[in-house]
Amino acid sequence: MKSITGAYEGVFHINGQTRRMVVFPQDTLLSLLRGHAVSLSGAKPGCENGDCGACTVVLDGLPVKSCMKLAVESEDTAITTVEGLYDTEVPKQFLDKWAFQCGYCTSGFILVAYAMLLNTSRVNDAIITEWLRSNVCRCTGYQEIHEAVWAAANARGNGT
Amino acid sequence: MKVIGCSIPRKDARDKVTGRAKYNHDITVGGTLYAVPRLAEYAHAAIKNIRTVAALKVEGVRAVLTGQDTPFLVGEVLEDRPPLAHGRVLYWGEPVALVVADSEEKARLAASLIDIDYEPLPVVNSIDEALKPNAPLIHPDVDRYTILNHPVYPKSHTNIADHVHVRKGPTDPLWPQCDVVIESRSVLPQIDHMAMETRSATVEILPGGRVLVHSTTQAPFAVQKMLAHYFQLDQGQVVVMAPLVGGAFGGKAAVQLEILAYLASRAVGGQMVSVVNSREQDFAMSPVGTGLDAHFRLGARDDGKILAAEITYRLDIGAYTDSAPRIARAIAAQCTGPYAVDNVKCDVLCVYTNHTYTTAFRGFGHMPMTFAIERAIEKLADALKMDSLALRLMNAIRPGQSSPTKARLTASNVGDLPKALNAMAKLIEWNGGKVMKVGPHLIRVQGIASFWKTSSSPPDAVSGAVITMNKDGTVNLSIGAVECGPGTKTTAAQILAEKLQMPVDRVFVHLDVNTEVDPEHWKTVASLSTYMVGKAVEEACKDLIRQLKNLAAIALKCSPSDLAVAGEKVFLRDDPQVMVRFSDIAHGYRFPEGDTIGGQRIARGSFVIRHLNLLDEETGEGRPGPGWTVGVQGVLLEVNTETFDYRVVKAASVIDAGKVLNPQGAKSVVMGGMCQGLSYATRESVVYGSDGTFLNRQMRSYRTVRMGEQPEQYLVEFVETPQIDAPFGARPLGEHGVLAMPAAVANALSRALGIEANQPPFVPESLWALAGGEKA
Ligand code: FES
Ligand code: FES
Questions:
Q1: Which residues form the Aldehyde oxidase/xanthine dehydrogenase a/b hammerhead domain (chain B) (predicted)?
Q2: What is the DSSP string of B322-351?
Q3: Measured torsion, CA atoms of residues B231, B233, B236, B239, in degrees rounded to the nearest 10
Q4: How much is the pLDDT for B1?
Q5: Most CB contacts within 10 A, which of A158, B176, B417, B764?
Q6: pLDDT at res. A1
Q7: How many CB atoms within 10 Å of residue B720?
Q8: Residue B737 in contact with residue B711, Cβ under 8 Å?
Q9: What strand order describes the sheet that includes B200-205?
Q10: Does residue A157 register a pLDDT over 60?
Q11: Is B411 exposed, middle or buried (0-12, 13-18, 19+ CB in 10 A)?
Q12: pLDDT per residue over B94-123, tens digit each?
């Protein structure tokens, strides 16, 4: 367990790039990512208490609500944000299946789906529900998101 | 070239799925100050004393404002709301003070250190309490407030902020002629919009006098007008920028944070100040959706023909009016639902309570209204022992009839509800609502409900479009409608592309709105953007085509009337080989000798809805909108009669869309609405404690539908009865998916359990209690 009391210079690995940055004890990973030094605003604040998933990023292959994680805790982990998934399957399927409207929840859903595919060799409806229940969308009917996630699973060869 | 009627991908799609689309608070400027409000911890109390000393001592605090610094009242219709509470707090969560500091953390800390003495006052915690003879008066001065936008009729010495009447034919003589008379009461709670992006606003006041506002608003031009009005500015001084909005549902049409941010910026010499709602603040401090208590008396002949209706709608508008008087008029104008009733008496009351104030909410009052109507219709069908779909068909509103406020209905303006009802019967294989047993304690049952809605927009609401051409022949489109999610900007681009017969990907539409450069669009509400913006875009296209032909005629040495436009070319109708490309004339035409005429093609179109008027004070007579959208929704539920748990197997909608402009876009916006409607039916409600505390102000306690809780199957169909004055005949569609879903669920549950499910949300426990509780 790391303990810091004031400004702290840490090494962060974000979307495959390594950056040395100064963080403070109270900084969340969400505020670090969205702040001027990094400026990756794909992760969104929706509640900042773990309820909505709009701020989801992937840390070492697992989805994490970045509003609930201190920046300093994510030092030396591999951080993936939605910007890091550019041109990959999951966003492509979200686009194809119209799995967004306002788009505010979209990065969070994409990252949970991405992590789910990393961690499960074969998905089914129950698994998709279990993983994606962590997030809230207020615009879509969820069906579109569900279909996009299935399509991404099939594209990578779901369990085959 | 065919663009209309095709599922054109949205213009904002790629940016949104890659996380690169920018919302209001995604771009921050270093050095911005933050303002954090201190919220009231009482629903009704006198403010005795506010001590700000400790807050001011926090390092980095620049200013602390209280109600004394903001001695004026604001309001969209009736000016009854202080930006910061004056003297008394009227709802739990009302902003009482505002701290401006270098950072959000410091401002929040300082806000928590403000010391406030309150003297608690009796809390008006429901509509019934508000209307009791000796109820505490929430606004003792209600009759002395300034009316900014007529009409509104506050009643002195009461908690009634407004009263709207509809009188269409006398009802008293009709009752004796009725074979069946039913009464029905429905009670719906306040609900929250809960857009995923919380509201935020940033204001900077420049020394030169310009006021720059960045906001999550869906009504940038309303923000502009409000700020100009309250701070004595020219409208041109106020520049409001509205980027993509992360969900709005009506909740971002209200102007609240912009005023706070302006006050904060003014207090620190005009520096840039942001106010960003926390989720808790967004729930409790910013406006929610109105609650409703409705009473129906319906009378019919034994063949089902409805003869008379007496209806009272009492709205829980919370502590301030905001847009409630306009919502009340929208309800009044559609008060019978989409059914022909010649003799109608309806009263709509806006009732003040010590609840969070309310504003527009997807459907502008029509979702709770539809719930109450459709529960009454269902009860009437039961009393008549008639199939409820047949009853709806028999009374369905038709061309040639008139609306409750005596607006004339035509095939063009009212569409075809009977057709939609028949289509719904097929779509969900309507069985008359009979209960089907599918397991030991499992039954399946269907429920349906119809709706109608028109815009109820002010008669002087305007919309505009400006098209500029780039040198290469591509076009830029600028409109004042905000992109909140439904794909408004893409639809506008589609209309342009179709009119000019050019590829839609060569049309570039300005995704943000800036009041300084974009033409006004009243507000991105009422599902009106396609109609109003579409009409303006059509006008602008006509203008552009005229300009292109005039210039091409010179280049081609012919008359403009010899020419046609398509495929980014202007050509001779009888010999298309003789042509100029858009790129040859977009920035003027250059003769072979080099001299040039014309200049850049810049076209404009503007639109205002004709023949609307305000409803008459006594009878409600008036025309509330250019056309109606009618539709039917249905569900198939599976209910466990032992646990009272249930799930939505199928959810279906048939809507008269006039013309579907973008099939995939239309389907997804309707499905999203359906899901939201099911969420209201099954779990959503603002919960107030006995002292008026807003209890469930987090997403873990204000529950919405999540993955796996959506219906197993969505069925969405459209019928198309063109509204002939609308672009390509299309009717508004944005809000409608939500409107009748709660009613359909209630109708199904009522049949399933033999109860009157008249008070959503329907959770197993409330159903169990309705079914007799322990005794069942
Ligand atoms: S912002 Fe992190 S879970 Fe909502
Ligand atoms: S697309 Fe708007 S919240 Fe999901």
A1: 18-122
A2: TTHHHHHHHHHHTTT-SB--SEEEEEEEEE
A3: -30
A4: 59
A5: B417
A6: 67
A7: 17
A8: no
A9: B61-66, B95-101, B33-39, B273-276, B200-205, B211-215, B238-242, B513-514
A10: yes
A11: middle
A12: 999 999 999 999 999 999 999 999 999 999
**Cα–Cα distance list, B22 to A103, B179, B261 (Å):** 10, 61, 21
What is the per-residue pLDDT across B575-625, written as a single tens digit (0 to 9) for each?
999 999 999 999 999 999 999 999 999 999 999 988 888 899 999 999 999
Interface of A with B in 122-141 (CB under 8 A): 128-129, 132-133, 135-141
The tens digit of pLDDT for each residue in B296-334 reads 999 999 999 999 999 999 999 999 999 999 999 999 999
Quick one: which of B572, B570, B602 has its CA closest to B587? B602
A108 lines ligand 1 (CB under 6 A): no
Ligand (nearest to CA of A144):
2
Place of tokens 């961690």: A119
Q: Which residues contact B486 (CB under 8 A, 6 or more apart)?
A: A101, B665, B669, B734
Instruction: Assign B751 a pLDDT band (cuts: 50, 70, 90).
Output: very high
Query: What CATH number has the domain spanning B288-457+613-775?
Result: 3.30.365.10
Helix (H) or strand (E) holding B651: strand B646-656
CA A48 / ligand 1 centre spacing (Å)? 4
Q: Give the whole-angstrom CA distance, residue B241 versus residue B434.
A: 53
Strand B646-656, strand B713-719: pairing:
parallel
- Helix axis angle, B529-556 to B488-500, nearest 10°: 30
Beta-ladder partners of A135 = none
CA–CA separation, B736 vs B556, rounded Å?
Answer: 49
What residues in B contact A107, CB-CB < 8 Å?
Answer: 19
Q: How far apart are CA A12 and CA A76, in angstroms?
A: 6
Residue B635: C-alpha distances to residues B450, B643, B683, B710, B713 (Å)? 12, 20, 16, 12, 10
Residue A102 alpha carbon, nearest atom of ligand 2 = 2
Q: How far is A86 from chain B (nearest CA, A)?
A: 6
> Which residue reads 């919405």 in tokens?
B704
* Confidence check on the interface: ipTM exceeds 0.95, yes or no: yes
- Tokens, residue A47: 């509640």
pLDDT digits (tens, 9 = 90+) for B466-507: 999 999 999 999 999 999 988 999 999 999 999 999 999 999
CATH code at B13-17+461-608: 3.30.365.10
Residue whose C-alpha is closest to residue B151's, from B336, B394, B324: B324
Amino acid in the structure at residue A157:
G
Burial B311-321 (b: 16+ CB within 10 A, else e): bbbbbbbbbbb
Give the number of residues written for chain B: 776
* A2 min Cα distance to partner chain B (Å): 23
Domains by residue range for chain A, with CATH: 2-82 (3.10.20.30), 87-156 (1.10.150.120)
How many CB atoms lie under 10 A from the CB of residue B595? 9
Q: Is the peptide bond before A91 cis (omega within 30 degrees of 0)?
A: no
Neighbours of B406 (CB within 10 A): 16
Whole-number Å distance between alpha carbons of B645 and B463 = 48
- Nearest ligand, measured from the Cα of A64: 1
Contact B708, A133 (CB under 8 A): yes
**E strands, B303-416, in order:** 306-318, 343-352
Cβ–Cβ of B247/A34 closer than 8 Å?
no
Alpha carbon B93 to its chain centroid, in Å, reads 23
In CATH terms, the superfamily for domain B31-123+196-247+252-284 is: Aldehyde oxidase/xanthine dehydrogenase, a/b hammerhead (3.90.1170.50)
- Is the pLDDT score of B776 beyond 70? no
Q: A103–B485: do the CB atoms touch at under 8 Å?
A: yes
